[in-house]
Amino acid sequence: MGIKEKLYEKIQAHRPRITRLYKEFADKVIDDVTVYKIIAGMRGIKALITDISYLDPYEGIRFRGYTIPEVMEKLPKPEGAEMPYVEGHFYLLLTGDLPTEKDVEEVFTEWKKREQLPQYVIDTLKAMPRDTHPMTMFAAGILAMQRDSKFAKWYASGQFNKMDAWDYMYEDVMDLLPKLPLLGAYIYRMKYKGDTHIPSDPNLDFGGNFAHMMGIDKPYDDVARMYFILHSDHESGNVSAHTTHLVASALSDIYYSYAAGMCGLAGPLHGLANQEVLRWIQGVMDKMGGKIPTKEEMEKFIWDTLNSGQVVPGFGHAVLRKTDPRYMAQREFALKHLPDDPIFKYVDLMFQVVPPILQQLGKVKNPWPNVDAHSGCIQWHYGVREYDFYTVLFGIGRALGVTANIVWDRGLGYQIERPKSITTDMLEELAGAK
Ligand code: CMX
After folding, report:
1. Mutational test site, ligand 1, from 242, 275, 315, 368, max ligand atoms within 8 Å of CB
2. Long-range contacts: 336-340, Cβ < 8 Å, 24+?
3. Which residue among 50, 69, 236, 265 is least enclosed by CB atoms within 10 Å?
4. Which residues line ligand 1 at a C-beta cut-off of 6 Å?
5. What are the C-alpha distances in Å from 129 to residues 48, 73, 196, 317, 385?
6. Which burial class, exposed, middle or buried, applies to 177 when counting CB atoms under 10 A from its CB (0-12, 13-18, 19+)?
7. Nearest atom (ligand 1) to Cα of 41
8. What is the pTM for the complete model shown?
9. Over the stretch 75-111, which tens digit does the pLDDT of each residue have?
10. Of 93, 97, 92, 84, whose CA–CA distance to 329 is shortest?
């Protein structure tokens, strides 16, 4: 059975569960909304559904029930590669089933047919000033492609019906995803490699082809596969996933929705943190004249950052309460492939020094490193030293999860999002603070 047929079968089987919950259990209370949760950014309120990934505060992310080590072990890999096919990971996220080699081949072939970047996207990018942030270029490139949305055309034709909406969303997603490595690599080489470009290789997979178009040798293909898989999904409440879901809930197509999600990812408290980590480490390196600091020297740098009112980038998390398994996967890779890299030595030292300091502050709920504390270090090692590009890499990976979610949103007919706001007066009244 092909991926689309399997998806439809799964959507049909799932629909009665949502309908039953909606009809028979609509009034059942499942969570409390406290004043804290409202003021702290709707923190932790159970108000979104997704079956694609679940984030346990102590265990970390599971994709369709599988931990990161399980995903890395169970998914098919290209010959000679350490990391699995991104194509297979998307199959898992979308259908919930582990793909066979044949399933991976199907996604590979389908994406190859649809990967070409339209000339007008290239023209749009070229028209932007070269010092524009790569995330702005990335979001603009995605948004420019909206003119080709099959979902939007279908809606405009007056034939929209809720039951078939997943089909047009799926087609848009399958059109969009394979273009993203091309878009990312194009932006990179336009901005930083003198506008020289390397054509896509029809024989290479999503990750391998990205490495090829970036112009970076092995094992960067495995770095790309690992990076895209690790960043793919982190349940639905984070800023990029939630924004994509929110915008799509207005029946906006995937181009509008995902571009909006990318604008959220570009914030320093979210996806920009990987760039901030490298900037921070480079700053310390400059002050140290390239030397590795002692533990005591590193502690002082951390305190200087905190005392100047800044956060330590790459540490802390809104949900996680232990070291991020996405950090650990990258650490394992670094220990194997770049144990002597000076930036890795900094990252390693921060792993030892930062958590006890953040614990001393007393207010930080999670003193442990998140995914962003590690990712820049590996990119730097393989020659991607323009750290304002790092969030684009995060964004390409994030597309896999958010787009799978949006196909399911349409499949299950989720409604437009519309929480209610109240005034401060009303909140004071409700809280008994008047
Ligand atoms: N350094 C210094 N202070 C920190 C901190 C850090 N790394 N992490 C949290 N804190 C502070 C908060 O700023 C907050 O202080 P105030 O009460 O003075 O405002 C306090 O500790 C409590 O915050 P929290 O409940 O522990 O954390 P939040 O859920 O509010 O925020 C996050 C989570 C990620 C935004 C925060 O930990 C942070 O700013 N980290 C650094 C940036 C970063 O690494 N972001 C990447 C997140 C990963 C991702 O995007 O997936």
Report:
1. 315
2. 337/219, 337/381, 338/377, 338/378, 338/381
3. 69
4. 238, 269-271, 273, 306, 311-318, 358, 363-366, 370-372
5. 39, 43, 17, 34, 20
6. buried
7. 30
8. 0.96
9. 999 999 999 999 999 999 999 999 999 999 999 999 9
10. 84
Bridging pattern class, strands 60-63 and 66-67: antiparallel
Question: Residue 247 has what pLDDT?
Answer: 98
Of 320, 325, 367, 376, the closest CA to residue 347 belongs to 376
Domains and CATH numbers, the chain: 273-381 (1.10.230.10)
pLDDT one-digit tens code per residue, 373-424: 999 999 999 999 999 999 999 999 999 999 999 999 999 999 999 999 999 9
The residue whose CA is least distant from atom 18 of ligand 1 is: 363
Three-state secondary-structure class, residue 33: coil
Q: Residue 401 is encoded by which pair of tokens? A: 């999860």
Nearest to 232 by CA among 108, 114, 110, 92: 92
- Cα–ligand 1 centroid distance for 425 (angstroms): 28
Measured torsion, CA atoms of residues 123, 129, 132, 136, in degrees rounded to the nearest 10: -30
Residue 336 CB neighbour total at 10 angstroms = 10
State the CB neighbour count (10 A cutoff) for residue 62. 18
Whether the per-residue pLDDT at 290 is higher than 90: the answer is no
| Tokens 């999904």, located at residue | 233
Cα 316 to ligand 1 centroid, rounded to whole Å = 5
Known catalytic residues are 270, 317, 372
320 and 370 Cβ atoms separated by less than 8 Å: yes
Sign of CA dihedral 65, 254, 124, 275: negative
Cα dihedral angle (422, 263, 204, 278), rounded to 10 degrees? -110
Residue nearest to atom 4 of ligand 1 (CA): 311
Cβ–Cβ < 8 Å for 88, 227: no
